[in-house]
Amino acid sequence: MNTPHSQRIISISGAPYDGHPVPEMLASIVACGATHVEPAYIVGYTEPFDESAFSPAQTRQWQAWLADAGVGCDALSSHIDLGRDDAVKVFMGRMDFARALGARVINTNAAASRLRRRFFSNIEVLARHAEAIGLCIGLENPGDGSDNLLNTAADGPALLAEIGHPMVGLNYDAGNTISHRPAVAPADDALAAMAQCLHTHIKDVRVTPDGYFFTPLGEGHVDCARILRHIAATDLNLSIEIPLRLHRQPNAQPSRAPYRVPIADIEAVLTPALAFVRQHLGTTAPAHAEAA
Q1: Distance between CA 174 and CA 166 in Å, rounded?
Q2: Would you tell me which of 157, 158, 223, 250 could form a disulfide with 187, CB atoms 3.0–4.6 Å apart?
């Protein structure tokens, strides 16, 4: 399901644009020189929403927005606990939405460890649906310090082996590891997880006594450059995810600012982030992106 190096897709997550209308976000992503968006629907991390956000009418609206902006969608983030009693119904609707937008992968959390039994029952159904619609499920390691079925890269092989379906893999995020398991070196863990990944997130984090703050790439403690140099030898697609409206408290719990970040401030972080990613991947911008 991965793509040749020359066709690698670098998406911009919708997370930095939390609170901004979608058309404004897409225009800004183009202005930054990117070609793809990863829409972000994460309860507590982004604007409040309910399942009506994934309705047929909203699907058509998103399709129109993407077409008007000339922006593609390779991945979508829509994190829930897949061990929930209603996970199959809820996540199937989100999967259909993602696929209708053109996404190749939908990223989500696995499940709290205590919900292990229900998770494996649910993921069996969801994996079959993924195969039917041609969409991969990327299980992402969380960042909140909880006890999850996927805490670090070491949990990946056994978890995926037990799931036993090729449409399910990892969407590893070293920027989550740094707060979720502070004793684990995030770049080392990212490299250990890479063989299990079908997509990955890149974000940097500055660790302070006041908590964990998302920062421009290369200015935090994750060692994104090292991770990117290893991604360069793979066919992985990735998203730049810098949730500027958010930080994590010292206990790793997310704290969302009451105000949205101005577009100009977002672009001032994302434009060099895109250049940083391309530099360490050894790639160049598409011709139409350079002209934007």
Answers
A1: 23
A2: 223
Number of other CB atoms surrounding residue 89 within 10 Å: 12
The one-character DSSP state at 243 is: -
Question: Cα–Cα distance between 260 and 86 in angstroms, integer?
Answer: 31
| 89-134 pLDDT tens trace | 999 999 999 999 999 999 999 999 999 999 999 999 999 999 999 9
How far from 164 is each of 51, 70, 99, 115, 157, CA to CA, in Å? 29, 37, 22, 18, 10
At 174, which amino acid appears? A
Cα separation, 284 vs 142, in Å, equals 31
Domains identified in the chain and CATH numbers: 7-291 (3.20.20.150)
List, as one string, the DSSP characters of 169-199.
EEEEEHHHHHHHSTTS-HHHHHHHHGGGEEE
pLDDT in tens, 222-239: 999 999 999 999 999 999
Residue 262 to residues 20, 66, 252: CA-CA distances in angstroms? 9, 22, 25
All residues at 6 or more sequence positions from 68 whose CB lies less than 8 Å from its CB, including other chains: 23, 26
Nearest Cα to Cα of residue 109 among 123, 97, 121: 123
Question: Which token pair is 67?
Answer: 């077409």
The CA distances from residue 148 to 86, 100, 155, 180, 226, in Å, are 18, 30, 10, 10, 26
Reference 270, options 182, 175, 189, 203; nearest CA is: 203
